Amino acid sequence: MALVPYDDSAVWGLQKFHKSSSVYHFANHTIQIKQNWKQLGVAAVVWDAVCMIKINIFSICAEHVSVSSPTPNNTELLCAHVTITDREAALEFLESNVQANLPPDLQPRAVVKELTWGRNLGNFAPGKFDFILGADIIYLEDTFADLLQTLEHLCSEHTVILLSCRIRYQRDQNFLEMLKGRFSVREVHYDPSKDVRVFKAQRSIHKEDF
């Protein structure tokens, strides 16, 4: 488990978490994510691994999504139905960020839903998700078995998982080995400046197509 200083005089690398918002430019859109470190701690700030997901999302989606045009464009991909999950304590804050960044006509496509790994999985249709995106979610070893159970419940053989993370400790590598026991896994991006990696995982019968 990572222990993070919880005060305004934290080291320089953590100062960004104490800002009231974090701004990103993605798919011709400006996204401003509200942050509230004092109220919710690590659940209400944007981590570097979250940013790394966007580097690969469009190229990987284009490989797997069938749309009317030869090449999916930003608008088509952004019109997907998305389920955004977190623990119950963070849901209200998460919902406020969705409402602040999506126009009213698109908000019904983004559902905010509580998910605690390994619990109440019947609230989610098994194998019905095309893509699963996870950022910085493999740091707590006690949750690894529950996380794998959750991924297996949500995935079909056509589901693509993207996990972005830092490999900080041996336990992180251990999780990747556990994941490889159940999915085809490969690294698709590495940012040496932030030491963040993006892994693609898929339960695939034909690994040569992976």
From TrEMBL:
Subcellular location: Cytoplasm
GO MF terms held by the record: methyltransferase activity
Pfam families the UniProt entry points to: Methyltransf_16
GO BP of this protein: methylation
Swiss-Prot/TrEMBL catalytic activity: L-lysyl-[protein] + 3 S-adenosyl-L-methionine = N(6),N(6),N(6)-trimethyl-L-lysyl-[protein] + 3 S-adenosyl-L-homocysteine + 3 H(+)
Keywords for the protein's UniProt record, in alphabetical order: Cytoplasm, Methyltransferase, S-adenosyl-L-methionine, Transferase
InterPro entries referenced in this protein's UniProt entry, alphabetically: Methyltransf_16, SAM-dependent_MTases_sf
Organism superkingdom: Eukaryota
Similarity annotation: Belongs to the methyltransferase superfamily. METTL21 family.
Protein name in UniProt: Protein N-lysine methyltransferase METTL21A
